TrEMBL record:
Keyword vocabulary terms for this entry: ATP-binding, Cytoplasm, Metal-binding, Multifunctional enzyme, Nucleotide-binding, Nucleotidyltransferase, Transferase, tRNA processing, Ubl conjugation pathway, Zinc
Entry similarity comment: In the N-terminal section; belongs to the HesA/MoeB/ThiF family. UBA4 subfamily.
Pfam families to which the protein is assigned, alphabetical: Rhodanese, ThiF
Active site, per annotation: C189, C351
Keyword Ribonucleoprotein applies: no
Species, as recorded: Collybia nuda
Pathway named in the protein's UniProt entry: tRNA modification; 5-methoxycarbonylmethyl-2-thiouridine-tRNA biosynthesis
Name listed for the protein in its UniProt record: Needs CLA4 to survive protein 3
Length: 395
């Protein structure tokens, strides 16, 4: 029979003595892996309870950094971690709670290109983000990976909770919301305000639903829970129907969306918005990224640019852009200073899909001074082939 490390009986004893939980429940948590996307208002409380309960592996995906204005609700961060990546700051907090936890801190944004590969290793996915494109992306990814998506949302005095893709026939987010909300009806916490404890309540409930799913304490009846701090009663629960056969994501085969990496979620949700752009969502968005069409324009403009291709040498040998230089990612990250562009020169970083190039830009950025232009090419050579030059090989 499997056992736990001796000190874990003491650490988790209070929950282990619960009816229906026991040693099997604790072992299930220990063997489970959970991905939390967004380490903000919802993610922090969810992570805190998931870590405290003894989830074996926790992935934290967030590309944003901690700001002072986050501290009133994003309770894993503190004054000393302002400026740090939220994923790193949250990891640090969880490790303080339990030094044995296994935490993967992922400091890149979840995008259509990377969602499947980043989330595939985890059993349960938590949506703790705050924007429509990411909600659709997460829902489609959870459907593709056949994993439950524990989704939270909070704004002003109100919150919502739902487990999508629950059990064999629970609906996905698209089943309920086939069309994105009108842009003027949604806003960020920065725009609309939020009471911190409301995110705490919803984030805690996301942790609770996750624990119920993993330990087998869930009833698998899909429902949408609405919370309103100033109403009476504060909680209302709506039973949901099973999945919609006409749903583009989870319905019958004819309705399929196509491949996730090819979907432009920002466009689907009504086009770029400044706050999404600030988040690095959509394409070509913050000052450190360039969308493929703009990259093409920059190359044609005649200005002096350098193109660094960070793929492995073998892949570079397969196909490459004219005038690009190969610097495999490992070499660049080991010594970014060597590869900084000269003053006045713009550097564009490419890779196959647009993931490694973000890591490369991050490394260059950490050693670059003011006025240096370094951008990663969103979607990489795959996007080049798709949107610019159909004769460029896809491999
Ligand atoms: N596609 C994404 N990939 C990774 N993290 C994301 C993505 N979209 C949103 N997030 C993260 O989800 C979190 C949402 O949390 P929250 O809204 O509480 O924080 P915030 O955006 O810092 O708040 P504020 O609106 O007050 O500035 C943010 O930390 C944000 O970076
Ligand atoms: Zn659906």
């Amino acid at each position: 029979m499997s056992t736990l490390p001796l000190e874990d009986y003491k650490r988790y004893g209070r929950q282990m003595i619960l009816d229906g939980f026991g040693l099997p429940g604790q072992l299930k948590l220990q063997r489970a892996s959970v991905a939390v996307v967004g380490a903000g208002g919802l993610g922090c409380p969810a992570l805190q309870y998931l870590g405290a309960a003894g989830i074996g592996r926790i992935g934290i995906i967030d590309h944003d950094r901690v700001e002072l204005s986050n501290l009133s609700r994003q309770i894993l961060h503190n004054e000393e971690t302002v400026g740090m990546y939220k994923a790193d700051s949250a990891t640090q907090a969880l490790k303080r709670l339990n030094s044995h936890l296994t935490v993967d801190a992922i400091t890149t944004a979840l995008t259509a290109e990377n969602a499947l590969s980043l989330l595939a290793p985890y059993d349960v996915i938590l949506d703790c983000t705050d924007n429509a494109p990411t909600r659709y992306l997460l829902s489609d990814t959870a459907v593709a990976l056949k994993k439950p998506l524990v989704s939270g949302a909070a704004q002003k005095y109100e919150g919502q909770l739902c487990v999508y893709n629950l059990g064999p026939d629970g609906p996905c987010y698209r089943c309920l919301f086939p069309k994105p909300p009108a842009q003027d009806t949604v806003g960020t916490c920065e725009e609309t305000g939020i009471l911190g404890v409301v995110t705490g309540i919803i984030g805690d409930m996301q942790a609770l639903e996750t624990i119920r799913l993993i330990t087998g304490l869930h009833d698998y009846k899909p429902s949408l829970l609405m919370f309103s701090a100033l109403s009476s009663p504060q909680f209302k629960n709506f039973k949901l129907r099973t999945r919609n056969v006409k749903c583009a994501a989870c319905g019958t085969a004819e309705q399929r969306l196509g491949e996730i990496k090819d979907i432009d979620y920002v466009q689907f949700c009504g086009g770029p918005r400044p706050d999404w752009e600030r988040r690095g969502l959509g394409e070509g968005v913050d000052g450190w990224r360039i969308r493929i069409k703009d990259f093409e324009t920059a190359l044609k403009s005649g200005k002096q640019v350098s193109i660094l291709d960070v793929r492995p040498e073998t892949e570079f040998g397969i196909c490459q852009l004219p005038l690009s230089t190969n610097v495999p990612l490992g070499r660049l990250v080991a010594n970014p200073i060597e590869f900084l562009p000269k003053k006045g020169m713009e550097a564009y970083i490419v890779c196959r899909l647009g993931n490694d190039s973000q890591i490369a830009v991050e490394a260059l950025r950490s050693v670059s001074g003011e006025g240096v232009v370094i951008k990663d090419v969103v979607g990489g050579l795959r996007a080049w082939s798709r949107d610019v030059d159909a004769t460029f090989p896809v491999y």
